[in-house]
User: Fold these one by one.
Assistant:
Number 1:
Amino acid sequence: MTEKISTGIEKLDELTSGGFIEGSFVMLSGEPGSGKTMLSNSFLKEGLNNGENCIYVTFVEPEEKIAEYGRSMDIDYSKYEKQGNFKILDRPVGEEMHVEDLTTEIIDEVNSMNCKRLVIDSLSAWILGFPEGQKKRRLVRTLSRLLDRVNCTWIGIVEHTPKIEEASFEEYLADSVIYMETKFKDNVLKRELKVLKMRGSDHARNAYGYIIDEDGINIGGPK
Ligand SMILES: Nc1ncnc2c1ncn2[C@@H]1O[C@H](COP(=O)(O)OP(=O)(O)OP(=O)(O)O)[C@@H](O)[C@H]1O
Ligand SMILES: [Mg+2]
């Protein structure tokens, strides 16, 4: 039986027929400033509120920034950290060797904390250390399988303009893909969220407008 877990955003739960599939790899793709980090924070907030242990791996912004975003969304990451329920791994984009070491580190941490929700911000920055396409794919696949085995649901953020015609290997490997599109229309910034796929589950097929405010992502009606 496929178990669903709440995404932390009520409307996104609706669009995904009840949330993300437990243990699955959710790829979140979007332009700069489209709200990928915000959505990921809501996902972790939901887990922490439910007593699940969570890990945030950051290659993009420093640990202090993540804590600050958390505070602005009413998440006290430092409290959860002290209790042993949360960990931020702030790591530089490394060389090939370090990419493999970090995979082992993540899996070890997930196992020792019994982590149920993980965010990698961003997968693109992390695998920059791998020059070869095949190795990148193998790494993401291995990670994905190991996390599935221990029912750890994870968001892998991918930094690119979401375009199905230019789908990357992550889109094929991921169990679910969410596009957060940001574009200027008549000189005004417009945002749209789309669920591209969700293996083994029904999901919304429309594009949905959304805004970002201090509470996070607010998804509106279909376009
Ligand atoms: N309190 C707020 N009120 C309104 N909009 C906000 C607020 N906080 C953040 N935003 C919007 O959210 C954007 C940042 O979202 P976020 O950091 O999640 O994007 P991102 O997709 O992770 O970007 P990047 O790829 O650069 O990391 C800001 O550029 C701004 O437009
Ligand atoms: Mg971000």
Number 2:
Amino acid sequence: MEQSATINGIIADLAQIAADPGRYASGWKARREGRVVGILPMNFPPEIVHAAGALPVLMQEDDAAITYGRSLLHEFYCGYTRSLVDQAATGKLAGYDGLFLVDHCVALLGAVDAVRFELPEMPVYLAQFMASMDEPTTRPQVGEQIAALRQRLGELCGVSISDAAIQHSIAAYNRNRGLLRKVYDLRRRGRIALGSRQMQVLIKSSMVMDVEEHTAILTKLVALFEAYPQVPEGQVRLHLSGHFCHAPRPELLDMIESCGVTVVDDDVFTGYRYIATDVPDGPDPVEALTQWYFDRNSNVPCSTRAQKTVDWEGYLVDSLKGSGAQGVVVLIAKFCEPHMLYYPELRKALHREGIPHLVVETEHEGLALEMLKTRVEALVEGIRRPRIATAQALA
Ligand code: SF4
């Protein structure tokens, strides 16, 4: 009992930071007298910012209603990009010394143009990594872009970023990712009763906090998880899939789990996708970060990248075999084109394999949770009673 109170206390502290990254960043800035650099999902290597002595903060969707941002981006942009622009327009990015990103979709490009328009003084640097992973020119192009990022971050922070500094940062992030993967492993094996809301807090806080501070807290937490295992209560094991760039709303995750579900795994961006892949060892850190870009897509394929030898649906089916998940909830952010266009492939594969699944579209503006709950209950009931599940899979 005492241990579970300690675990809950640690997670509650991290939840506060995850809910207000700007506040944490200002505190960090005052304590460390360093720069704070906003980075955008999904392919930016935070290691380079850390190596420059700055705090990388992966920009999150803000819960606030979109107001001024409405005049800057059309309604058919995804909630993440509209929220980002609204944060720029309402002064919420004032504490950031720069914004760095690696492009991955048209909406993100539009959002960055709007941020530049709104905050002309803010240094905004966009790198473009080739999305076609199989071309002979991709690797050298990505390497050049990473070298350019290193140069620009060095200029912004007034330092020359050494190989040793990047290697130190790579080791720090690999340690952090390794601990988070340990939590995932415990969850897949049914050794901890960690809800999706709590799992999201662990990942989200790792995206916005000083990596060493986060690792110190996580080390304590993992030791507690290992010493005091708990059996999860939900009966139906599900996998959450998709949801690029930003976190699905915690109340949606709570609702899914309230239907007798244990979420055992996921490939959402604010989840396993973010921490699945370490940067390999090697004497040349730029080369290592380039390799990371390729490894990430091989490990957990993304529909914003094109690669002949890997596919997301194959990965998803294999993950379910590994975790024992009995079904999938696909979470798609409304107007997320790269996900919407790929979803038919996922659907075909899930049907082919007889895996029950449900697709849920999320919106920045809110969710009809009661209506969605009926659909999740139908999925769960179908899994409990296989005849219904088969009919659902064939529908
Ligand atoms: S990938 Fe999807 S969620 Fe991310 S910025 Fe593009 S449209 Fe938005």
